[in-house]
User: Fold this.
Amino acid sequence: MLNRRNFLKLAGTIGAGMFLDIYSSDIVKAIEQAAQEKGVKLVWIQGQSDSGCTISLLQGSHPDIYDAIMKLNVDIRFHPTIMAAQGEEAMAALNIEPDVLVVEGAIPDPKFATMGDRPVIDILKELAAKTKIAVVAVGACATYGGIPAANGNVTNSMGVQYHKGKKGGALGADYKSKAGLPVVNLPGDPAHPDHILLTLSAVILGEIPELDEKGRPKFLFSDNIHDQCDRRGFYDKGEFAKSFHETDFSHEKCLYKLGCRGPVTNSDCAYRKWNSGINVCMNGGAPCIGCFNEGFPDDMSPLFETIENVPALIGINVATAGKIAVAATALGIAAHAIRRGVSKNPKRTEEEK
Ligand code: SF4
Assistant:
């Protein structure tokens, strides 16, 4: 029998598609038993969002959203994008105590995001206070603020329990569900459908995954993208694409020089991949933009510049980096550390000095 701890361990070590193909009947049995006991009521609300995480979930195929709802026996009481009800009937569906509250999108000042005639931030606080098991923030915006909270941020947007790298956010640093759990963060722009479904499965099973210091399940966000990347061999050999004309695999190049953020980003997406395990950004010729990081997008910018040209990535204040001598030294040290894997390679010595 697949117990809950094995579930988390296995879900984090092999692709979700393969995992579910192999262990599907065990998981379904366990989830159905747990769900029947608990009668899981789920509410999904959206703040400043383009519904990208909803679309991401709808495109999941192992299982697809219909199978997932049926297998998880989840009673989705409210979802603004996919529910049939409208107007007052829809808003009335929020008058429950959810077992799980999923939040998509950043949370701004009251007047910048409303549902019905109420500010989303008020609805969030009211539902979160009644949530029995856990609040799950999905996507870069709900977790850490994302693009709506990027520099400028005229709407004062923030994540559900974080604002960029700092705990706090809309619910505050001390928020806990009735079960005593902090907000579970599933970053990504968008969040990965496997991350959403596997985390919801774990939560429904009754055991919250162990979280890292950024509120993310460790079983999904412990691995470094660069370490798992299919192009890593090219990095180690010092073979770098110098233009986007050289990014397909026929050129056998690493995308580091085009600004890849894989070396500073943790997620399992390099081997879990997207679209049912078919592809991931780097394999498609697009450098990782670090969308799983709490500082995305500001700290990852400017995109398509190498890491050593983005001071925020190596702990240097952008406003002062150019003025302080020690900053230049730190930049050099960090760049050297990041590129240590190629330092022994004679080819890199010629091309990358
Ligand atoms: S720098 Fe990017 S493309 Fe190159 S190996 Fe690392 S993650 Fe892959």
Summary: The longest strand covers residues 41-46. The chain has 15 helices and nine strands.
